[in-house]
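Q: What residues go here?
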């Protein structure tokens, strides 16, 4: 059996040698696989696709300010379109514009931290 050359891992700055015929070392091969699985599982399944990108840009154009900060009397540019009620994969809820609000990154982080924090109680 002719020995295939062992090339260095294609991942930048890795430097480990690959198994014959592979482009990445064992570690980075796995890492890439995991990342691809994640992307496939989230972006597509949850509806965060091109359609959502377009919709959220349009929504932010009409609602450019963070609504939570606005309530507190602050003028802060919104960065994300948030689902008031977490959609949890529910496509009807996901695309319901009445369920959308503009938030700045800080407010969005606070909100999602509360929702994912497992306090068993959600706002709204
Ligand atoms: Zn590597
Ligand atoms: Zn805010």
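A:
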């Amino acid at each position: 059996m002719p020995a295939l050359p062992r090339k260095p891992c294609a991942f930048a700055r890795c430097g480990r040698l690959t198994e014959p015929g592979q482009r990445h070392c064992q570690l980075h091969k796995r890492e890439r696989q995991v990342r691809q699985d994640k992307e496939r599982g989230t972006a597509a399944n949850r509806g965060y696709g091109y359609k959502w990108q377009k919709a959220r840009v349009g929504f932010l154009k009409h609602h450019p300010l963070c609504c939570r900060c606005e309530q507190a009397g602050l003028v802060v540019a919104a960065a994300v379109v948030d689902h008031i009620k977490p959609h949890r994969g529910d496509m009807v809820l996901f695309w319901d514009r009445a369920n959308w609000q503009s938030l700045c990154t800080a407010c969005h982080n606070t909100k999602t931290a509360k929702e994912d924090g497992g306090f068993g109680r959600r706002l709204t």
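A: Context that may help when evaluating the design: Strands lie at 80-83, 100-103. The first strand starts at residue 80 and ends at 83.
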